[in-house]
Write the structure tokens for this entry.
Amino acid sequence: MKLSRKWLADFTTITASDKEYADRLTITGSKVEGTEDLSTTAKNIVLGRVAEIARHPDADTLWVCTMDIGQEEPTVIVTGAQNLKAGDFCPVALHRSKLPNGTEITKGKLRGVASNGMLCSLDELLLEQNDYPHAEEEGILTFLPEEMDGYVVGDDIRPILGLDDQVVEFEITSNRPDCLSVVGLARESAASFDTVLTVPEPVVKGSGGDVMEHLDVEIWDADLCRRFSARVVQNVKIAPSPVWMRQRLRKAGVRPINNIVDITNYVMLEYG
């Protein structure tokens, strides 16, 4: 099972390094297979805004983008992507940057025009369209306002993409099903480090009415089924999940699909 330490922090505060955390949990009976510091997978990539965009003077398929990256002077980047327009927000890999896929970016010239970096696509950031459903698979990743969560141009891209995190992978043995959830591992972590565990009780808010107006339940054998509960959910629109949920699922090794599927997977991961 993969555990995001930022998700773990919802339930208990542990300041130990990844190695200290892995060693302590392994010693106390929860074997750690490995850890990954996601923050090291990207370097010198910032949030940028397309201030101006124009066709390359010597190439029909290239565009010259003047990018606002929060500095006094804008920077120019040449791209072959066809999905950008002025005002778009996107990841900008600057000179001497490193992409999550391992590629290192430096400034250069494309058909005679200086390009001071690169604009990033999903693939270059090791993302899929399920992570950003509105994005074009072959184009540059652009952000919706809610996906930037109050960030401004020039900010490090890692918190925006959820890369300011560490992921710990556990081997959960058959005798420890209590650790097959974030809450279970949080309980184990809090006990191992003698920290406070806080697990809020889930609250389901109803809108009133009687569920029996919508369905009939007949219990054939009350001894075998001592309790039956049901809840009706209405007026649900299938749509992408919030970006924070998609990021947490991805770090847990679960591909985000839509709000209906994702909330089920999320609750199962969190509470088991």
